[in-house]
Amino acid sequence: MSKIHVLPDIVVSQIAAGEVVERPASVVKELLENALDASATTITVQIEQGGRRRIRVSDDGIGIPADEVELAFTRHATSKLNSIDDLQQLYTLGFRGEALASIAAISHITITTRHRDEETGTRLRIEGGKVLQRQEVGAPAGTVLDVENLFFNTPARLKFLKKTTTEKRHITSLVSRYAMAYPHVRFVLEQDSREILRTTGSGELADVVVRVLGLDAFRQMIPIAGEERDRLTGSRINVHGYVALPDFSRADRSHITLFVNGRSIQDTRLTYALTQAYQGMLDDRRYPVAIVMIDLPPDDVDVNVHPTKAEVRFRSPDTVFTAVQRSVRQALLSALSAHPSESSTDASPAQQTLNLPSSPAEWQSPPSSPPPAYAAQRPSVPLAQTTRHSVYTDDDTDLDYIPAGADAPLRPRTLPILRVIGQIGAQYIVAEGPVGMYLIDQNAAHERILYQALHEQLGSDENDSIEIEPQTIELPKQLAKAFEQSWDFWHQLGFVIEPFGPDTWIVRAVPSLLQGLDIGAAILYTLKGGSEPEQLIRQLSAFAAIRSGEVLSTEEMRSLIQQLERCPSPMTAPDGRPTLLHFSSEQIAREFRR
Question: What is the value of pTM for the model shown?
């Protein structure tokens, strides 16, 4: 049996390099980030044989002081943080101090650098992690890193590299992404002495998009701009960039580019938020072209969760999701409303947005209905009772037609005028619009209404409570602790609750829109869905919403549709399920072979 022993430093470095350096593009990424952190205004990337033979990155940044050059190639040596607390306020792309050491361990690397406050530069030659040569040289301010013979001492990694054309494509994609994230920096990319990309550094994202995608593609793009405030932290989340009109789509997600605080990331949930914003505008098998920049305070995002920092963790992921989805959706609706010819000629953009997936399973979301055990405890609550106390006033329920958007002139119209026809299977509301028929899922629609009302109540200073006959609730110990931790949430919603013994409370008042519920069952079900306010609101909305199987009067159906239209995101439930489906007159005629 082999004895336990400490690995040599060079072996440790080579193993660590395997996490940081996966392919030539990984080297380019690390060197680009170092250049950007050094405040470079011009960055040149030169590649030979897809990066196998050579990768050269030069910049005009501040450079490295002569007495720190060798230290820069030591593992965990960094100028970007001093303590664990600094991770909460990162304003740089790099911070671990692993990149240069990892690259040097598996390549032949030459660095030439001069700090802008020094008169001469330093050149260092390292092979396989060992310093072979150091000399003083004349050099402009900045840094040139020349990486040759990548993976020369790790043949297993070398043989897993793809074809040269594939590696070139990865590098081109990477440099293009950083050029878009930093439009104020001039980027030059050369592959085998052939210039692939050159940006102007004008500071205009549009200039870079034109150079990366081409003028014809850019003409199919629209700008996005939005802001969302996190209700928990008060932080502002800004979203900007460009997205393509629905007609300019692709067969895969590879043309969706996401940035968080200037860092290129991969995030399946944000990609889903983006594609969801196109629901009803794109075929299910097509994906948009998008460049989405997300800016938020550094302490609201954790970038230290992945070896290559390609993934991040948000403090309030639901708020970021909403910010992306809403910004893209509103930009698309505005653009299509202004240019109806760019959508189908058979229907207005408003109707175009309602061609939602025909099956909730397509959304890959869990069902919102509570388990049967809770459903049995929940009394039947008439729609009028739960919605007449909504934050939306209801003055037009006696009309045959439901006005669309009359009370929200600043928001793009997302629903047309609808006339209630009836109800199918005590589950779906049938309505007629200007161009075709609509089916509204009463459960999903009511969830959206309640979700919006609860969100606004949570952020309101007004207390919209109503006294009830005191109800006693007793919770399991684990949920009792979660209940105590979320005490502020319940209080802000308008609940008046007092301790009434171990793990027991008495409820004396509830938000008016939840009047009539079995409050004990509602709280128990809500707490099982999570402890974050966003999770609590979703669960509470799901519990309180009317169910499939509840017969509604015509007045209740009209009220529901009217309040749904007044929601900022009326076409989906909080969990992403569609609230309604649209069948155009032409589609119906085709089904009847007319």
Answer: 0.55
Q: How far, in Å, CA of 224 to CA of 211, rounded?
A: 19
Determine the Cα–Cα distance for residues 283 and 561; give it in Å rounded to an integer: 26
Architecture of domain 9-198: 2-Layer Sandwich (3.30)
CB 524 within 8 A of CB 473: yes
* Calpha distance 466→483 (Å, rounded): 21
Residue in the block written with tokens 């299509």: 336
Residue appearing with tokens 């609550």: 381
Residues 221-258: pLDDT tens digits? 999 999 988 877 788 999 999 999 988 888 888 899 99
CATH topology of domain 220-343: Ribosomal Protein S5; domain 2 (3.30.230)
Q: Which residues contact 80 (CB under 8 A, 6 or more apart)?
A: 37, 86, 90, 92, 94, 95, 97
Architecture of domain 345-594: 2-Layer Sandwich (3.30)
Q: Which is nearest to 552 in space by CA: 380, 404, 435?
A: 380
pLDDT digits (tens, 9 = 90+) for 546-585: 988 888 998 899 889 888 888 888 888 888 888 999 888 8
Please tell me the distance from the alpha carbon of residue 150 to that of residue 99, in angstroms, as a whole number: 14
Question: How would residue 291 be classed by pLDDT, with cut points 50, 70 and 90?
Answer: very high
What is residue 117's DSSP assignment? T
* pLDDT tens column, 401-414: 333 333 333 334 45
Provide the residue type at 488 as one letter: D
Q: Do domains 9-198 and 345-594 have the same CATH topology?
A: no
Q: Rounded to whole angstroms, how far apart are CA atoms 5 and 423?
A: 74
- Give the CA distances from residue 240 to residues 171, 248, 335, 336, in Å, rounded to whole numbers and listed in that order: 25, 19, 15, 18
End-to-end CA gap in the chain:
81
Beta pairing, strands 186-191 & 42-48 = parallel
Domain boundaries along the sequence of the chain = 9-198, 220-343, 345-594
CA distances from 263 to 30, 246, 421 (A): 12, 26, 51
Model pLDDT for residues 164-209, shown as the tens digit of each residue: 999 999 999 999 999 999 999 999 999 999 999 999 999 999 999 9
- Whether pLDDT at 101 is above 80: yes
